[in-house]
Amino acid sequence: MSTSALPISVVIPTHDRWRELSQCLAALAQQDFTEPFEVVVVADGCTDATVSNLEALAPRFDLRVLAQPSRGAATARNNGARAARSPLLLFLDDDVIPSPGVISAHVRRHASMPADGVVIGPYLPTPPQADDYFRMQFFDFWRQTFDTMGEDGHKATYRDFVSGNFSIAASSFWAAGGFDESFPSCGMEDYELGVRLLAAGLQLEFASEAAALHLETTDGHRLLRRKFREGGGTITLVGLHPEVLHTTVLPKPRSVARRLAFAAPVAAGAIESILQAMLEPAAALRLKPLWSWLNAHAQGLAFWRGVGHQLGGGAREFSSFIETVERRIRS
Can you list the domains of the chain with their CATH numbers? Predict the structure, then answer.
């Protein structure tokens, strides 16, 4: 099939999540979009049956499967975009389940906006029970994120650029350089691309009609690993774009978590584990204020340990980094 016959290519990076990916693909097979489209799935270091299961499928859309060594979502997205044959790219995460009108909504939006625009669709998790504190935390975060993006007069920032459900012209994606593959695995590479896209003058539109469901499965352990990567990713982001320093937590007053993570990272990791272990009993006893305190401090330790790990040191290296960034901002 020629490139001109494909109005859109869907790119999905995946790593050992066949259950979620299979639901995503099933939803793509139920799209109301009547024109041909392709789906490019990039298996990033998969050790389960993802690749063989994909090869056994015969969906109504053109399915292409790429396998790569474990190199992270940024590399997987870039490789999927290189293989895509359409001039319009739709990126979906493997745990995002598109509603039937998602592809149509993205295509319509691009038809009515500048060629170098970006369209972002919401992907809320299923509302959890009120006593499921972890799930409620994520649900509230994503609801607030998308509600803010949908407000009249909202001025887009790089933090609006979340990569689970967005579309962009392939030419604009590559003109910006694609995703930066130097980031820690799943560590703010979408925000970094957002900085570059907005600096290039691209228009970012929020399309509420391009709605999807997010099969959020994060638990306490995964949350802390994510916060650790976020700490390292924040250092990488600010190192590349000093102008965003004061939109991050890095220049805020020193906290106990920061001092401990820098002075004694091993002890900080042990305390983090203890706090994390106390979360489940606190939730079981419906002690939400205590749960929130434990969770906030565990996340703080994880984040600052990630910062120290990325810098290869502690307070001295951090101060030197901040001073260097501030000089670059002034120059």
Answer: 3-217 (3.90.550.10), 221-330 (no CATH)
